[in-house]
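Q: Could you predict the 3D structure of HEAT repeat protein?
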Amino acid sequence: MTEHSSGTSNGSDATHTTAHSLSPDGSAERPDETAMATTLAIALGKPDPQERLNAALKAGTYPEPADVPVLVARCEIEPDFQVREMLTWALVRHPPEATLPLVLSALRSIAAQGRSQALHTLSKIGDPVAWEHITPEHLHDTDDEVARAAWRTAVGFVPADEAAALAQDLARELGRGDIDVQRSLARAFVALGEAGTPVLEAATRSGDASVRAHAAATLRIAEDPESTFYLND
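A: Sure. Here are the predicted structure tokens for HEAT repeat protein:
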């Protein structure tokens, strides 16, 4: 996680300040979790993205289980990339037993961003249980960002004995999308390793020119991961 400024604006200063409240005898008081979650929701709804970033930062700095539903819900609609990254970081800072059920549920969101952010967050949480919940529907989602997140996450969790089957599934996406989408799939194949080589070699003989070009480019980058990804005309 890159370092972020600790300065916050007035709109998010109230978030989690009760985490430091003391009773008259000097002992720590239990914060009102419902009130804190409400305060967080308000802060995350501010129009200024810096205020939302600061609110998410505080939510991760002082993890509270009641905040998890608020953070997951905001992932679905947050328009700013940096804030979405901070929301994911904040969720990772909470115990997996608090985050996983809700993040896994978000995989079924009707909002594409909700699904893609859930996949991204699962990759950061790192719990292998995620593999059981990544479906062909995610891998072949019509939304490019969901599919790309699914490819990246799937290759990170796939058991060794299922890697070849995953390679077959990923090969169905060869030729899809623009250069960025195709580069994402190529990187997923590189992460998958030798299990992907047979299907890529077979794809170079496809009757579809775009599939052949994508497969050949992927094999090149698999041989030299530091090389530039490009497609032959």
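Q: Anything worth pointing out?
A: Residues 162-233 form one domain.
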